[in-house]
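call fold target=Probable U3 small nucleolar RNA-associated protein 11
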Amino acid sequence: MSAAFRKAAKSGQRPHRERAQPASRKKLGLLEKKKDYRLRADDYHKKQNALRALQKKALDKNPDEFYFKMIRAELQDGVHIIKQPKDEVTPEQMKLMRTQDIKYVETKRVAEAKKIERLKSELHLLDAEGKNPNKHVFFFDTKKEVQEFDIATHLDTVPELVDRVYNRPTIATLQKETLKGATDPAHLKKLAQQRKNQYDLLKQRIEREKAMFVIAQKIQTRKDLLDKTHKVKVKKETTNGPAIYKFKFQRKR
């Protein structure tokens, strides 16, 4: 005897027995338990209450009520999609915006040009790496003079300073004053690297200034295209320049 039957027998209650499945209903499957029936019934009543609430809301709704989502929404493949409003800009407003864009780009370009001029004034462009080296041509009358030519003697300086294209003092100056500037090879190498970095920065700024100039030209071209004057494209737009149009001449008052 199980513990449940012993407990029921002691309390004098009739023990609960699970109802057996009749042989005639076996083809219909197992009988539903009381707990499962309650869950299914609660779910059914919950859905019915939600439907009644929606029906009441629909009946109480004002048929003349209007809100903007009615005209901004549409049904696509059974899904509500809100249409994004298009930007409405008049030609005059577009021209004004183009003008503001040109002013901004031009301001940046002018600031970049000033920085370029400042860098050029600080650097010696004589020994810029990547540029063609300057040539100093000497003229002689005979081949003997060419064979006997000594560049240090001709420039009146010491042989150690011949390769310099700047700060190359003469022997007379060296006798009166000491050589100014760095003479240590390590220090000279460090200064050369710093000079190279400055030239790289200058090159980047020059390229940026050219790019801003091209951008300003393209913005101006797009601004001119807003005019309704008849025009014909002469040259396509490239990365280095804007498109070129030929406009019909119109006399203006």
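return ok
The chain has a mean pLDDT of 77. The beta strands are 73-76, 79-82, 231-235, 244-247.
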